[in-house]
Structure formats: structure tokens, C-alpha cells
Design a protein that fits this description.
Blueprint (H helix, E strand, L loop, with lengths): L7 E3 L2 H13 L4 E6 L5 H13 L2 E6 L19 H11 L3 E3 L3 H4 L18 H4 L3 H16 L3 E5 L3 H13 L5 E5 L19 H22 L4 H15 L3 E9 L15 E9 L2 E9 L7
Bound molecules: adenosine monophosphate.
The site of adenosine monophosphate has 17 residues, from helix 2 and strand 5.
Length: 293
């Protein structure tokens, strides 16, 4: 029988650095995949992408309190260390770094990394302080591990462009790679939060990605963006979504609003919508067609 050894879990930066130092001495490249646990195939795809780039892969599991707002699901966030470790082993992870909150934010901690340009819109407008929490913790994880690569999912596109901005602006010596969104069979983007959905909500949730892909297609074929996003929002509400935080076409890299294709730019459609207490986010590319040139 094939036996997969669980990766070692360390909880302190000292242990993490000792192990990474030994790998470096052996000449190995190191890749980092930050997660909050509650793992699914989307996370594992990042670990596999990391493995393709580096001989050694560190996955972090840290539910970062500072990126959750008041009334959000920090206390309820799914935790299953044993299952997560087994999944990470199967994907080829070498080391799990799972620090405590006190290890990450010891008494007296008082620094924040804040990226201005890409965070005052979309999720940033609806989750005040969220991206400061994300960039601060990712900056710390990068400094603690000092990997050659760090891999982030396109599922959280705004997070991805914000981290790229931070790494560029602060000269952090790491290469950021992205990995495509992994979806369920019906197209719903995998998310740790999908497990909050009731069976009835889960059926409605499947309409989210379908509406976004259809709208992206309409925009690609030259229909006016405002009309398409209005119709999409109405369709989601009548499908059973309780509310829509945002549903907008944006420049894929600056996240600025767009009203059509400009030469050399890429457009993505971004949305966040609520089903009961669960907030779903997704984003899809608007593929250029001949008609919009
Ligand atoms: P999280 O644990 O939700 O903070 O996510 C950790 C990393 O996994 C982030 O880089 C996410 O973008 C990525 N991720 C989450 N869901 C997916 C998915 N469905 N497909 C690809 N990457 C994902």
C-alpha cells in the first residue's frame, strides 16, 4: 500500500527558519503557499504549482484575525488540522507552518503594511481594513520564510494584484506566481466558505459563475457594460441571492473602472454576492473577440 508521510508541522518562526536554512544549504529552491486552512482542491492546486517551481514547498495555515471585520466569520472559520495535513501530504507539501496568533502578533505588535492603489475598491469598499490585514500577514509570511516563489490563487484576484504591488513596491525578493481558479463540477469556485451553504443555497450558488461567464461573453460581444452588469445583478437577485456587494467590469491589473476595451488592456468581471450569511466572490476574464476591436 502506498503510504504518504504527513509533512512536519512547525509553529514558530525559529523552527521554520531552521528548516528553510537547511534546504537552502542543500541548494533547494523553496516555494510558499499561504492558506487559512479548511483546505480544498483549489488550495492543493497551489501546492502542486509550487512543487513545479521548487524542490521544497511550505504551506502556511493561519486564520489571520486582522483580515476579518467585526461580525465576520473569524470564530466560525473551518478548522481541521488532521484532514488539512493529509491533503497537503497528498499534494506534495514538505512543511506546514501553522503559527499561533501570539507568534504572529506578539504583545506590542504595532506595524501595518498598507497598499493604497488596489484596495479602496471592490472587496476593499465592503470589508474595511481587510486588505491591510492581508498585506501585513503576507509580508510577514514572506519575511519569515524568505521563499523563492509564493503562489496565490486567481480566485482572489484583487488580493493577487495587491500582493504583486506590495512585493514590487517594497522590493521583497520573491517571485509571485498565480494559479487559475479551481471550480466544482457545476462551476462554483471552490471556497472554504462553501461548506456554510445549505443544500438549497448551494443550488442557487451554482448560478453565480454561470451568470458571470454569460455576462463576460455579452461584454466581449460588444453589449454595453452597464446594461450587462445591471441585467446580471437582477438575474442573481431573482435566482435567490439576498444581495450583491458589487458586480463590475474592471481593468484586470489596475482594477480601475472601464467602459470598453482599450488597446493593450485586459478586462475582468468581479462580483461579490450574499446568500444568507455567506458571502461568495468570483471573477472571470472578458475574452477579447474580433467584434470589440
Ligand atoms: P484562503 O485559504 O481562502 O485564504 O486561500 C488561500 C489561497 O488559496 C489564496 O491564494 C486563494 O486565492 C487560493 N484559493 C482559494 N480558493 C481557490 C480556488 N477555488 N482556486 C484556486 N485558488 C484558490
Amino acid at each position: 500500500m502506498l503510504q504518504i508521510t504527513r509533512p512536519r508541522t512547525v509553529r514558530t518562526v525559529v523552527e521554520l527558519r531552521d528548516i528553510v536554512r537547511d534546504w537552502r544549504r542543500a541548494g533547494d529552491l523553496v516555494a510558499l503557499t499561504p492558506t487559512m486552512g479548511g483546505l480544498h482542491e483549489g488550495h492543493l492546486s497551489l501546492v502542486r504549482a509550487a512543487r513545479r517551481r521548487a524542490r521544497r514547498v511550505v504551506a502556511t495555515i493561519f486564520v489571520n484575525p486582522t483580515q476579518f471585520g467585526r461580525g465576520e466569520d473569524f470564530d466560525a472559520y473551518p478548522k481541521d488540522d488532521v484532514r488539512d495535513a493529509e491533503l497537503l501530504a497528498s499534494a506534495g507539501c514538505d512543511l506546514i507552518y501553522a503559527p499561533s496568533v501570539e507568534e504572529m502578533y506578539p504583545e506590542g505588535f504595532s506595524s501595518t503594511v498598507s497598499v493604497a492603489a488596489t484596495t479602496d475598491t471592490l472587496c476593499g469598499s465592503h470589508r474595511p481594513g481587510h486588505f491591510d490585514g492581508v498585506t501585513t500577514v503576507v509580508c510577514k509570511l514572506l519575511n519569515q520564510t524568505q521563499p523563492d516563489y509564493a503562489i496565490f490563487g486567481e480566485k482572489d484576484w484583487q488580493q493577487l494584484v495587491t500582493i504583486r504591488r506590495m512585493v514590487h513596491d517594497l522590493d521583497i525578493p520573491v517571485r509571485i506566481s498565480s494559479s487559475p481558479t479551481v471550480r466544482e463540477a457545476d462551476g462554483l469556485a471552490m471556497s472554504s466558505r462553501n461548506r456554510y451553504l445549505t443544500p438549497a443555497q448551494r443550488r442557487i450558488a451554482a448560478k453565480f459563475n454561470k451568470a458571470l461567464f454569460a455576462s463576460a461573453d455579452h461584454i466581449a460581444h460588444g453589449l454595453p457594460i452597464d446594461r450587462v452588469t445591471d441585467a446580471c445583478g437582477k438575474a442573481l437577485l431573482s435566482a435567490g441571492f439576498d444581495s450583491i456587494d458589487y458586480l463590475e467590469a474592471r481593468d484586470a491589473y489596475t482594477l480601475q473602472p472601464v467602459d470598453g476595451f482599450q488597446p493593450g488592456t485586459e478586462i475582468r468581471l468581479f462580483a461579490a454576492a450574499r446568500l444568507g450569511t455567506t458571502r461568495l466572490i468570483d471573477n472571470v476574464p472578458v475574452e477579447r473577440t474580433g467584434m470589440t476591436e
